[in-house]
Amino acid sequence: MRQVLLAATMGLVFSLFGTPVAIRLLVRQGYGQLIRDDGPTSHHTKRGTPTMGGAVIILGTLLGYAVAHVVTLRPVTVSGLLVLFLMTGLGLVGFIDDYIKVAKQRNLGLRAWAKLVGQMAVAVAFAILAINYPDRAGFTPASTDVSFIRDTGLALGAVLFVVWAYVMIAGTSNGVNLADGLDGLATGTSVMVFASYVLIGIWQFGNNCQTNLVPRCYEVRDPLDLAVVAAAIMGACFGFLWWNASPAKIFMGDTGSLALGGALAGLALTTRTQLLLVLIGGLFVLIALSVIVQVGFFKLTGRRIFRMAPLQHHFELVGWGEVTIVIRFWIIAGLLVALGLGVFYAEWVVGADT
After folding, report:
1. CA 77 to CA 74: how far, in whole Å?
2. For residue 133, which phi and psi values (nearest 5 degrees)?
3. Assigned domain for 343 exists
4. How far apart are the first and last CA of the chain?
5. Buried b / exposed e along 278-296 (16+ C-beta atoms within 10 A)
6. Over the chain (354 residues), what is each successive 10-residue block's mean pLDDT?
7. Do residues 143 and 152 make contact, with C-beta atoms less than 8 angstroms apart?
8. Residue 83, in any domain of the structure
9. 253 within some domain
10. Torsion sign, CA atoms 138, 279, 275, 175
């Protein structure tokens, strides 16, 4: 537990005090956000706000994780390092995309194919490594089974698992990216989502088959270290939110959104809660679905369901204030996180009683 608290604290402190340093540096370099002309007109006032702030979240996470292990003298684990690799690798892809945008002063960063190749390379490398390196009990960081709250027994095999992992990673990273359209929306939601994975990791550690053979124990490798990773990310997001809340002094950019989405998918894969992520990260799912529905309906009928997608921009055009939208979406995100945790705990209670 000391590791979890240290990781969260260090991530928070670094992000809270490191973000204003990043703001000054980015302003000095002129790395400001470009605003789409076809977006809500109210967003034009945000033009020039520093972007690429997600780098602070990534560095805060890595520092929090490292300090937690150095202070407690606990060794790092393969599972924890793999999730951090996924987060950092996708963050690097996002950083290159952001850098091209601000350096060349254009809305288009990496070409679509180049961005896809970068995401795919990191995701596939993670997936292949995650089903190797078994521990003494034979557990690998991830399982080739489809999982909900634990493995379902539906085995995919190595090749299909890699494909499935890529779909999950691409979906969550793009979901967080689409949610990052209003000040503090994606950051505040991420705090709640990663906090849920802190609780899940701690609970799985206390009821782990390798250390505590209780009824309905969890066959998860390194659950406590996964909680440490989640805590470091949660703390880093909390500190960044201080500066990212409306009116935002800095944006996370693709650097942050791709990294956070990747970390979220990595935690779901390594904690064997793949399908539960649909509930816990439900707000990101709803926002991504709004884009899919909007595009699909327009191609079929030539008409739009929403005034603008993603969903948060529809409510802006309806007349809701930005802060109102963010707070209400946070409420929805919190309810979905609570529902996901409730389902997670109820499965254990019902199973233990039977």
Report:
1. 9
2. 55, 60
3. no
4. 30
5. ebbbbbbbbbbebbeebee
6. 94 96 87 56 60 94 97 95 98 92 71 88 97 89 94 93 96 93 94 98 91 82 96 97 93 94 97 96 95 90 88 91 95 97 91 60
7. no
8. yes
9. yes
10. negative
Write the single-letter amino acid at 182.
L
Tokens of 310: 């993603």
pTM > 0.85: yes or no:
yes
Q: 20: domain range?
A: 2-273
The CA distance from 293 to 316, in Å, is 18
Radius of gyration of the chain (CA): 20
> For residue 336, is it within any domain?
no
d(CA 32, CA 34): 7
Say if residues 156 and 167 touch (Cβ distance below 8 Å).
no
Q: What is the 3-state secondary structure (H, E, C) of the chain?
A: CHHHHHHHHHHHHHHHHHHHHHHHHHHHHCCECCCCCCCCHHHHHHCCCECCCHHHHHHHHHHHHHHHHHHHCCCCCHHHHHHHHHHHHHHHHHHHHHHHHHHHCCCCCCCHHHHHHHHHHHHHHHHHHHCCCCCCCCCCCCCCEEECCCEEEEECHHHHHHHHHHHHHHHHHHHHHHHCCCCCHHHHHHHHHHHHHHHHHHHHHHCECCCCCCCCCECCCCHHHHHHHHHHHHHHHHHHHHHHCCCCCCCCHHHHHHHHHHHHHHHHHHCCCCCCHHHHCHHHHHHHHHHHHHHHHHHHHCCCCCCCCCHHHHHHHHCCCHHHHHHHHHHHHHHHHHHHHHHHHHHHHHHHHC
Q: What is the distance between the alpha carbons of residues 91 and 62, in angstroms, rounded to a whole number?
A: 12
pLDDT, tens digit, 9 for 90 and up, residues 96-146:
998 888 877 666 667 788 888 999 999 999 999 999 999 888 889 999 999
Nearest to 180 by CA among 100, 255, 109: 255
Query: What's the total number of domains in the chain?
Result: 1
- Token pair 């034009």 is at which residue? 44
**Structural tokens at position 75:** 């060794």
